[in-house]
């Protein structure tokens, strides 16, 4: 016959149970405090930062840490949208470097290095697409099915997360295509993203909503209304971004024109961007988004320069190109002599 548990055993079990409950309460309180701090202080600090490399470190480090508290408290879905968008962008930077290595190898006719660089580039693009898809999926977990009805946004901050989530979905599609579909991003999210873009004000958000919709109609014109010219729509969005000093619409426009092989149009966009960013003041609250756009435009320039000359954009030459008309007075850059 089984002996009944002793008083000591019962006391031990009760103690363990209480300790576990106490730990759960502590974890929940800690999680709420950290998530509250990140929302109130961390995110504004991150968005206002100009050092993209440090912001990358913050996003990649804090994303899994903060999200781990979703097991004991409510999931910080909005934070996840921003952190995974940023983490995906950070991986894209690595893919860009591999693309430049690939182009340099082509320039000197080294097929072995070119092949290796292309493989590395596609791996990084697949990882970037996976992270960006996660950001988009967190947006859908907040607002359910995108592309049906526009949700009632309570403040400008919710508009911002909505826009970042849509950008993440679009970039996930673009990077997955470039990685030969290694991230398995579902293609049906394209139409949902396009329909969801109309839910926020185009003028307020630097022309980005129209740029997203136009880019998707150019990539996949199946749902495009007959009376809409997506190229004109994209150009109009680009001008709004130029006037307001935030270059996200310009990045989307340059990506579209690169995919279409419109090199001269890409050069013009880069030139306009380099001229405007020096003279237009940017809202300090969104410095990070602008710095990301600047890096992306620099990458487009580096890609064109490397393909044509074997090296990236020379220092101080952003916005100009190797085949520009030379001035009557020849100048020698001191860096070229070193």
Q: Name the overall outline.
A: globular
Topology as a string of helices (H) and strands (E): HHHHHHHHHHH
**Whole-angstrom Rg:** 24 Å
* Helix-residue proportion: 55-70%
Give the N-terminus to C-terminus distance in angstroms.
92 Å
| Average pLDDT metric | 84
- Domain count, please report it: 2
The overall strand count is: 0
Per DSSP, the total helix count is 11
Q: List low-confidence stretches.
A: 327-332
Largest sheet: none
Structural class: mainly alpha
Determine the strand fraction and express it as a percent band: under 5%
Protein described:
- The longest helix is centred in the N-terminal third of the chain and has 42 residues, at 7-48.
- The radius of gyration is 24 Å and the shape is globular.
- By secondary structure, the chain is mainly alpha-helical.
- The protein folds into two domains: 51-198, no CATH class; 201-313, no CATH class.
- It has helices spanning 7-48, 52-67, 77-107, 111-143, 156-178, 189-196, 208-219, 230-244, 248-260, 263-277, 287-309.
